[in-house]
Specification:
The radius of gyration is 28 Å and the shape is globular. It has 14 helices and 16 strands. With 441 residues, the protein is α+β, with helices and mostly antiparallel strands. The protein has a domain at 40-211 and 404-441.
Length: 441
């Protein structure tokens, strides 16, 4: 006996079969995407736009205004030149540009683009950087120089400046290469792509060959040396020669690991990718932490002398600590959760009470050794304050930094961070303005 609806059974079976095939195909596609996609490697930068516990000082429009001025005054087709000096018409001094492009400036710009999530501009920047600053061995040239014919004389010349002097092999810098690894790690975490994956892994391999067995010195400095003193317990007892002239203090060249170049966050990410480098990361953390000068002046030494196996607190003729170098060390420690609270207290005391941070401080006295204000020190302090979740210190640092932005509508550095020398010449640097962007946006 036939039942009601019996004629629908073939149609139901057909639809069930089609649905089953679609589900199977979807599962296959999802499985393929899972295993074909580049592996996930999370990487966050404490103190950046996304990780800040409070709002940035600049809104998107104002950050773009500062960025546009930076590009208008310093950007060539090969990258950012180091500085621009405004014309001084009263004394007949024309505008001038640096002929040098440093890897650090380019990398800070790439960092800012990655932190802001600017994917398309970052891809274009990365292509430009790789063509001009990455050596055949995959490491980074510390600087490049414009040919004399390419040094700009006008803004029109700046935009067309493309020719660079040939790069020498000795210009390759492992510390700048480490900075580039940090930039690639952040970019890959934001936008996982096969090309970025290959670039990051290739750079990790090149860095492993350089620092795989030891943290290499990244520069040679002249360290003061005093004449040897006589031992009064020696036999026979030495007697000074009355007619002899006192020996002069000399200088000895020594390879030094600059502490500010030890990007601890990047080294940790490098060790995550290549566990054999874990010991290099541990050594770097120990070196930077050990460079703290003391409780009275909780800033950091300049570097570590590998031959003498001791810290070099300063490299200038006077016993002073460079604030920007020292705060770079403090920032690197803060990024891995190792900020010394005494350094934070020192910054709070000097900036909130004195309303200023100077370029350098005397090691013994702890007082400012110059009247020059540290613009990069203010920006670094702002990043440290973000990580430490100290909004009052952050606001004070960026407000003071904002005070150094040009406001005259007739100025060729309008909206940029600048400094003015004793002769009235106005200069904007790529470093100051990039650090300002990283701090305020």
């Amino acid at each position: 006996m036939a039942t009601i609806g019996a004629n629908n059974h073939p149609h139901k079976a057909r639809w069930l079969l089609i649905a089953g095939i679609l589900l199977l195909a979807t599962a296959v596609v999802l499985l393929w995407l899972r295993y074909a996609a580049p592996p996930a490697r999370p990487f966050g930068v404490p103190g950046s736009h996304d990780s800040s516990p409070f709002a940035a000082f600049l809104d998107a429009e104002d950050a773009k205004t500062l960025s546009d001025r930076l590009k208008a005054n310093l950007m060539t087709r090969s990258g950012l030149v180091s500085w621009y000096q405004q014309a001084q018409e009263e004394f007949g001094i024309p505008a001038r540009w640096s002929n040098e492009l440093t890897a650090q400036d380019q990398l800070m710009y790439g960092s800012w683009l990655a932190e802001q999530g600017e994917q398309r501009p970052f891809i274009l920047w990365n292509e430009q950087f790789r063509s001009g600053f990455v050596s055949p061995d995959g490491l980074v040239y510390a600087k490049r120089t414009l040919t004399p014919e390419s040094v700009p004389e006008t803004l029109t010349d700046l935009g067309s400046a493309v020719e660079l002097e040939p790069a020498a092999d000795e210009q390759v810098s492992w510390s700048d290469s480490l900075h580039y690894f940090r930039v690639l790690a952040l970019a890959y975490a934001n936008w996982p792509q096969d090309e970025l994956d290959l670039q990051e892994k290739a750079l990790a391999s090149s860095l492993a060959q350089v620092i795989g067995t030891n943290l290499e010195p990244d520069q040679v400095v002249a360290i003061p040396t005093s004449a040897p003193t006589q031992d009064p317990a020696a036999t026979p007892t030495p007697h000074p020669q009355p007619d002899s002239e006192p020996p002069e203090t000399g200088f000895a060249s020594d390879p030094v690991i600059r502490l500010a170049s030890l990007d601890l966050l990047a080294l940790r990410a490098l060790a995550d990718l290549d566990p054999s480098l874990e010991i290099r990361y541990t050594e770097a953390v120990t070196l930077v932490r050990g460079g703290l000068i003391g409780a009275a002046l909780p800033l950091y030494a300049y570097g570590y002398a590998t031959q003498q196996q001791g810290y070099v607190r300063f490299v200038s003729t006077a016993p002073v600590v460079d604030l920007a170098d020292s705060l770079t060390c403090a920032l690197h420690l803060a990024e891995i959760g190792e900020l010394d609270p005494r350094t934070l207290s020192w910054l709070i005391e000097h900036l909130l009470n004195d309303n200023v941070l100077y370029d350098s401080y005397h090691i013994a006295q702890g007082q400012a050794s110059t009247s020059l204000e540290s613009l990069d020190g203010l920006a670094l302090t702002a990043r440290i304050a973000r990580i430490a979740n100290h909004e009052q210190l952050y606001r004070k640092a960026v407000e003071r930094l904002q005070w150094h932005r040009a406001t005259s509508p007739t100025s060729s550095v309008l909206d940029a961070v600048f400094y003015q020398d004793g002769e009235g010449l106005v200069t904007m640097t790529a470093r100051d303005n990039l650090l300002a962007l990283l701090a305020m946006s």
